[in-house]
Amino acid sequence: RGGNMPCILNAANEVAVAAFLQEQIGYLQMSDVIEKTLQRASFVAAPSLDDYLQTDAEAKSIAAGFIH
User: Fold this and answer.
1) Tens-place pLDDT, residues 16-50
2) What is the CATH number of the domain that holds 36?
3) CB pairs under 8 A, 24+ apart, for 18-21?
4) Looking at residue 1, what is its pLDDT?
5) Total domain count for the chain?
C-alpha cells in the first residue's frame, strides 16, 4: 500500500521483538501483533515527517495493546 505502512510495520516489529525477547509473547505471536497493528493503525497515503512521528507513536501503542 505504501504511504506510512512501512513505518507502521517497523514500529509494530520493534514492539513485537522486544516482547518476544522479554518472553511476553511467543515467536509465532510476533506476526499476529504486526498484522493486527497494520490493520488498525491510521493510513496516510502521502505522509509528512510529522505524520511519520505520529504514526510511529500510534503503531507502538496499538502493538503494545496486543501484548498479553
Assistant:
1) 999 999 999 999 999 999 999 999 999 999 999 99
2) 1.10.1740.10
3) 19/67
4) 80
5) 1
- Three-state secondary structure call for residue 1: coil
User: Residue 55 belongs to what H/E stretch?
Assistant: helix 49-65
User: Do residues 16 and 57 touch, judged by C-beta distance below 8 A?
Assistant: no
CB distance 33 to 67 below 8 Å: yes
The reply to whether the predicted model has a pTM over 0.85 is yes
Query: For residue 49, what are the domain limits?
Result: 5-65
Q: Which of 55, 66, 64 has the alpha carbon at shortest distance from 14? A: 64
Which cell is 5 given? 505502512
* DSSP strands (E only) in the chain: none
Cell of 19: 516482547
* 16, amino acid identity: A
